[in-house]
Structures
1.
Amino acid sequence: MDGFLGTRASFMLDLVVVAMLVVLPTLAGSIYLVRVKRNYLWHKRIQLLLGVVLAVAVTAFEVDVRLHGWTHLAEPSPYYASGGVNWVLGVHLAVAVTTTVLWFVVLVRAWRNFDHPPCPGPHSRWHRRWAWVASWGMTLTAITGWVFYYLAFVA
Ligand code: HEM
């Protein structure tokens, strides 16, 4: 199915590119809520929602790419034959897979170790350290994903 951004990419690829545009500001908002407003409950709710949105997006995207492939859409790009597209994809996948695993661990550990409703406690130290790593990982995942999208389907 054709995408809606007017590039060579498929509908699912376009959807994931736009979804990441929504996910990053939402993540920033959630961190602002917990850090500045000390609104732990809304931070928790937003992070759980983001976890579900990301899981659904990744699954739908994987199914689309595995069923229909993507290389035929990227072949017209000057960066495809030179290997640039595959190189960036390699970097993107390394960052994305590591971040997905870490994200899941941070989410499950937070759910198990913070009180219900959540508030700072013995788990805070671990959570603050690794949740920041996961947040920067998600940012890097989006940026490398956008670079890949541009090189493969726009250029
Ligand atoms: C992958 C999911 C999550 C990410 C990326 C994330 C991100 C963050 C970040 C970056 C901070 C530190 C803010 C600062 O520097 O002060 C933080 C704090 C906090 N988060 Fe999360 N969070 C996630 C999930 C959750 C969940 C599910 C809960 C509740 C069950 C939770 C509860 C808290 C609490 C209570 C704090 C405050 C800790 C303290 O300052 O003592 N987080 N989170």
2.
Amino acid sequence: MRRTAVVTGASSGIGAEFARQLAARGYDLVLVARTEPALTALAAELTDEHQVRAEVVVQDLAAPDAAARVSDALTALGVTVDLLVNNAGFGTAGRFAQIDPGQEHDELMVNVVTLVDLTHVVLPGMLARGSGAVVNIGSTAGFNIGPHFATYASSKAFVLNFTLALWSELRGTGVTALAVAPGPVRTAFFDRLGTRKAAIGGRMITPERLVAAALRALDRDRGYVVPGASNFAMAHLMPRRPRKLVALLGRRVTSAVADALTPR
Ligand SMILES: NC(=O)c1ccc[n+]([C@@H]2O[C@H](COP(=O)([O-])OP(=O)(O)OC[C@H]3O[C@@H](n4cnc5c(N)ncnc54)[C@H](OP(=O)(O)O)[C@@H]3O)[C@@H](O)[C@H]2O)c1
């Protein structure tokens, strides 16, 4: 039986790689993002190389009704969603008061609100069928307090905790959830952020390696995964308490990013 995966943020980086590796596993794809030419080119590539159905949904996921619009598009396409990859996201960094509030609002809409809304769209059908999965892309930034990445790190902490809560709730239903927490990955992420200095700690890995590790973790129903040994160590060995000391030390580590992006 054919299976369909919806991948958000499929126009570049990690999302495009999820689409490629899922197509190689035989999934039909629905590719969601704003950049239509990139989505259309990827859809053609996937159909050519893997003989799968690949559809494109052009949608700004920061829009308040984004999930409803994607849901309508899925209905119009006659698609049953077996796998949702909530990958679309971006970061903001620097001294909080100097960051554009509109950008941070959009960041929370994409990284958090639409991720939750889309999960609501697909879960009832998955539960009724007794199968399916939701993969949410967090970050190692979500394991700790993130001065100079206050909104981004907090959005990814939400993704990690939300997904593990779902994973727990869904036990025994045939449906599952996985949080993927990448360290630095070689994509356009840091160009969009404005500085590669933000890639603090951990080893830069390729999207290919990241997605392969994520899909292995999904096969094994791991709940969450931090691909790359040094990223895993960073995420788990950094002390969490005392929380104020962690926050103060974090500020020192990220001060170069703050100076580069939001000079005093
Ligand atoms: N690269 C890293 O080091 C790293 C580390 C940890 C976590 N992550 C996470 O990994 C995910 C993917 O990032 P990436 O590294 O692959 O970066 P990327 O190459 O910049 O890709 C980001 C994707 O998100 C989409 N997106 C952003 N804003 C959107 C919006 N308003 N509406 C719809 N789509 C939107 C972009 O599509 P359009 O611009 O075409 O809309 C693009 O496809 C993100 O959630 C990011 O936070 C990345």
